[in-house]
Design goal:
This protein has twelve helices and 16 strands. With about 425 residues, it is α/β, with parallel strands linked by helices. The protein folds into two domains: about 270 residues, Zn peptidases (Aminopeptidase, 3-Layer(aba) Sandwich), CATH 3.40.630; about 110 residues, Alpha-Beta Plaits (2-Layer Sandwich), CATH 3.30.70.360. A six-stranded mixed sheet has the order 1-2-6-3-7-15, with helices on both faces. The protein has a four-stranded antiparallel sheet with strand order 10-11-9-12, with helices on one face. A three-stranded antiparallel sheet has the order 4-5-16. Strand 4 and strand 5 form a beta hairpin. Helix 2 packs across helix 4 and helix 7 runs antiparallel to helix 8.
Length: about 425
């Protein structure tokens, strides 16, 4: 291995990395509200103490991004991006530990954000710190962006940094969880987009025994939701490049399907169609009153190549064509997909993964969820991959990360940085 000493140096930082990951979990950076002030300043101080050039950005109170830069003359810049906000822990009785205390047990770290994605943050922090300590031989720069707000769309985190020209570089790693010893160490190069809708229906109240005197808003809402649900049956022609990525993803999802105990076809279908989840329904005041208002919120996942605005327009037209009155559709979220075709950077990343893990084949994959990679790739055209430690416990009670997976990813990050910048 060309940079074997560096990789061994990361191994010597194992305990430091574990302690750092536990410390990051201790910050209750739930989103909402995504006030990450404390954890952001902790990361800022960590890098300042190590001589990095550090900047903070706060487009909205409490939503602070930290950019840490290690620069050595002229050359390319490698971006690393990761979020420090986490989803709420939910009901505490479902946890075997305090979700906001990082706990080490059975070679794992437990706590909210362990998998998504404070282990990835710790892996990147230790990697960059180690490279600065040994005065690693490269030219150019490494920029690490630690952002808030990813769990609710990223407007005040990555999107802000990209639009303001702060997150710029020649290639980017987003540290979302893609890899584990069980799943394999995969490189995500594409993901589905999101269209979140709010559907509301107005009606007119009357006594339930005389329903013809009123207009049932829930009935209207159900008719519209039924039409939206039909999107799952629409045949989608994906671009050839996306079809190729989907095929390359099959071995990875086959391993996951076995670990979940679900048929592989369940995962294959995710990437052959849109999915529609009716997540929230509200309406009515009493069973014997015809409801005059009802609303629903719907999550639609789009395949790469689909335009969220075009899908929304299609839904609006279908509803209009039915002649149903008093119905309003509103976009809450419209996020594009992204795809990053095989190229020099993707090949370099796959080579580094193979070298560290010894894998004979490294899968490039498509992901079902959306990440901040879409902003970096779509708005700036920067070659971008998702690569980080993670598993199926993300967003779940008793979330954990295998320590070995976190350390392995940190080694891979170090090798990618040196190969890319040497």
């Amino acid at each position: 291995m060309r940079f074997g000493k560096v990789v061994k140096g990361i191994e010597s930082k194992r305990e430091e990395m574990v302690k750092l990951c536990c410390g990051l979990i201790d910050f209750k950076s739930e989103n909402p509200p995504a006030n990450v002030t404390d954890i952001a300043y902790f990361i800022r101080d960590y890098f300042k103490e190590r001589g990095f050039r550090v900047s903070t950005y706060e487009p909205r109170k409490g939503k602070i991004s930290v950019s840490a830069r290690l620069e050595k003359g002229e050359g390319k810049r490698l971006l690393w991006n990761g979020h420090v906000d986490v989803v709420p822990a939910g009901r505490r009785e479902n946890w075997s530990t305090d979700p906001y205390v990082g706990v080490v047990r059975d070679a794992k770290i437990f706590g909210r954000g362990a998998s998504d994605m404070k282990s990835g943050v710790a892996a990147a922090m230790v990697m960059a710190s180690h490279l600065s300590e040994i005065d690693a031989d490269f030219s150019g720069g490494i920029q690490l962006d630690f952002v808030p707000d990813e769990e609710t769309g990223g407007d005040y985190g990555t999107k802000y940094l990209v639009e303001k020209g702060i997150s710029v570089g020649d290639a980017c790693i987003v540290g979302e969880g893609t890899s584990s010893r069980e799943w394999g160490f995969a490189v995500r190069v594409a993901e589905k987009g999101i269209l979140d809708l709010k559907v509301s229906a107005q009606g007119r109240t009357s006594h339930a025994s005389l329903p013809f005197l009123g207009e049932n808003a829930i009935d209207k809402l159900m008719r519209v939701l039924s039409m939206v649900k039909e999107l799952e049956n629409k045949k989608i022609e994906t671009p050839p490049i996306v079809r190729k990525i989907i095929e390359q993803s099959i071995p990875y999802y086959e391993r996951i399907s076995k670990s979940f105990g679900f048929p592989l076809d369940n995962f294959k279908q995710l990437f052959s169609k849109m999915t529609v989840n009716i997540g929230i329904i509200r309406g009515g005041v009493k069973t014997n009153v015809v409801p005059d208002y009802a609303e629903a919120k719907v999550d639609i996942r789009l395949l790469p190549g689909q335009n969220p605005e075009e899908v929304f327009s299609e839904i609006v037209k279908k509803v209009a064509d039915t002649g149903i009155k008093g119905v309003e559709l509103k976009k809450d979220v419209a996020l594009p997909s992204y795809e990053n075709p095989e190229g020099t950077f993707v090949s370099l990343v796959k080579g580094c993964v193979a070298e560290v893990t010894g894998a004979e084949q490294v899968n490039t994959i498509i992901g079902s969820g959306a990440t901040d990679a879409r902003y970096i790739r779509s708005l700036r055209g920067i070659p971008t991959v998702n690569l980080g430690p993670g598993n199926e416990t993300a967003h779940s009670a008793n979330e954990y990360i295998n320590i070995e997976d976190m350390v392995t990813i940190s080694k891979i990050y170090a090798l990618i940085a040196l190969e890319f910048l040497s």
